[in-house]
Amino acid sequence: MKSLKLPENSEQLVIVPSNEKGTGFMKNCYDERFLNEVISKRIFDQVIENVNKINAKKYTEKRIADTSGVQ
Predict the structure, then answer these.
(1) Which of 17, 24, 39, 59 is most buried by a 10 A CB count?
(2) Backbone angles phi, psi at 57, to 5 degrees
(3) What are the CA-CA distances from residue 30 to residues 35, 49, 63 (Å)?
(4) Who has greater pLDDT, 68 or 30?
(5) How many CB atoms lie within 10 A of CB 16?
(6) Contact present, 31 and 14 (Cβ < 8 Å)
(7) For 36-53, b where at least 16 C-beta lie within 10 A, e where not — what string?
(8) In whole angstroms, what is the distance from residue 51 CA to residue 69 CA?
(9) Reported pTM
(10) How far apart are alpha carbons 39 and 44 in whole angstroms?
(11) Residue 56 has what pLDDT?
């Protein structure tokens, strides 16, 4: 993830990068310049937490499916 060149945030685009492992998204990217009028920091953090929970559940399901036939 560190080597990716992501675009800068703007009024039309706000980037929410994944964590280093690519298993979830980072909450520390709330950009007040562009998000303050759209979504509060508290709601933003809640959305990221919920997305991360969904992502973790789906990742676990995939790992179980990937290893289900391996003995």
Answers:
(1) 24
(2) -65, -45
(3) 7, 13, 31
(4) 30
(5) 16
(6) yes
(7) eeeeeeeebeeebeeebe
(8) 29
(9) 0.79
(10) 6
(11) 93
User: Which pair of structure tokens corresponds to residue 24?
Assistant: 């979830």
Q: Is the pLDDT of residue 71 over 70?
A: no
Is residue 16 a contact partner of residue 25, using CB atoms and an 8 Å limit? yes
pLDDT tens digits along 5-53: 889 999 999 999 998 888 899 989 999 999 999 999 999 999 999 999 9
SS (H, E, C) the chain: CCCCCCCCCCCCCCCCCECCCCCCECCCCCCHHHHCCCCCHHHHHHHHHHHHHHHHHHHHHHHHHHHCCCC
Place of tokens 């036939």: 69
φ and ψ at residue 25, rounded to 5 degrees = -115, 155
